[in-house]
Each structure stands twice: as structure tokens, then as C-alpha cells.
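A.,

Following up on our hallway conversation. C-alpha cells first:
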């Protein structure tokens, strides 16, 4: 356990805590976390995770912008659902990417847990993209990632990080429930607005 891992864990916890509450501070705290983990995972030879966290930097910047300006009339974005077709396509493409990356890491590098690491990489990318678009289903992807990541990091001796992902698992479940409630309230408000507009027409 290193001091850099401790700092990364603290900012990782703050990032998820802010995300659950739809607080824009999830993005700057997330940027600090992912930058630090680039160095942590490189030393642990979890190369898929290194690639993942480099990409995370750009996705965090995009998410920061979208949450502020991705809503109606460039206002703050609100939580929405994915269509069934979009969800199925995303899941299949993510699985295909995982298998391809896992095969490459297993055959061309000395990576530890090439397929497990590839799973957390591919599904985390999808989860992060969906999170940046404020999609409810992003939490389902995070829950799957957390379950696999807990095992990998514990075996690799990154016990503090494994503990963080255990907390992430429970926080993802809490985030899913909180976002479901917020989405229901948004849909109810939009329904009332539509009825009022129809009445005025």
C-alpha cells in the first residue's frame, strides 16, 4: 500500500459520492483519481487498466461538459433511460471488446488476469460513457465491474483499492436506487408539464 494509492482511494470515494448526488464535483475529483491510478496500475502490470484510466481522463472532461450543458436548451443534463435496443447493442459491443482485449493481453503481454482485467476495462469504459451521458443503466455496468474488480485487486495485493471497490459496489447500488427515484420525479414533472401545455393549446 503506497501513499499515492491512499490519495487515489480518497478521491475515488469522493467522486462516486458526488456522482450519486448528481453533483458536478464528481468530475474534478474523478480526474485526480484516474490520473493517480495510471501510475498505480502500471506498477501492478494491469496494463488494460492503465489504458482505461488514460481514456478516463478525456471521458471525465467530456462528462463535466455534458452534465453542465447537455440538457434541454444547453441547460444541465437530467437522468434518462436507454432504449432496449441501445442497451443490448452496448452490452454486446462491450463483450466483444472485452474478448478481443483479453486475447491480446493474454497472447502479447505478461499481464495479470488478462481476461478479468479486460472485462473491467471494457465494461468500465461503457459505464463511464453512459455515466457521462447521465444514463440510469450506467449503474448496472458499474455494479458488474465492481464485483470483478474486488477479486482482482485483492489477489494483486491492492487491498486498499479492493476495499474501495467494495465500497463502490454498495455505493453503486445506492446510486442506482437514488437515480431511479430522481428519474421517476423528472418523468412525473415532464408529464405534468405536457398536460398543462395541452390544456393551454
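Then the amino acids I'd put at each of the 201 positions:
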Amino acid at each position: 500500500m503506497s501513499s499515492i494509492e491512499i490519495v487515489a482511494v480518497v478521491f475515488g470515494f469522493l467522486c462516486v459520492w458526488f456522482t450519486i448526488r448528481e453533483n458536478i464535483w464528481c468530475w474534478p475529483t474523478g480526474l485526480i483519481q484516474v490520473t493517480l491510478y495510471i501510475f498505480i496500475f502500471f506498477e501492478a502490470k494491469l496494463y488494460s487498466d492503465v489504458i482505461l484510466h488514460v481514456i478516463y481522463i478525456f471521458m471525465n472532461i467530456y462528462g463535466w461538459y455534458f452534465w453542465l450543458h447537455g440538457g434541454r436548451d444547453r441547460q444541465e443534463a437530467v437522468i434518462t433511460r436507454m432504449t432496449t435496443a441501445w442497451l443490448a447493442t452496448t452490452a454486446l459491443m462491450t463483450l466483444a471488446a472485452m474478448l478481443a482485449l483479453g486475447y491480446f493481453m493474454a497472447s502479447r503481454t505478461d499481464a495479470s488476469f488478462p481476461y478479468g482485467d479486460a472485462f473491467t476495462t471494457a465494461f468500465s469504459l461503457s459505464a463511464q460513457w453512459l455515466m457521462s451521458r447521465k444514463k440510469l443503466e450506467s449503474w448496472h455496468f458499474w455494479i458488474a465491474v465492481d464485483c470483478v474488480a474486488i477479486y482482482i485487486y485483492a489477489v494483486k495485493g491492492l487491498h486498499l483499492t479492493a476495499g474501495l471497490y467494495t465500497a463502490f459496489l454498495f455505493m453503486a447500488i445506492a446510486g442506482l436506487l437514488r437515480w431511479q427515484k430522481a428519474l421517476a420525479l423528472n418523468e412525473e414533472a415532464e408529464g405534468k408539464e405536457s398536460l398543462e401545455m395541452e390544456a393551454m393549446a
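The longest helix spans residues 159-200. Curious whether your intuition agrees with the design.

B.
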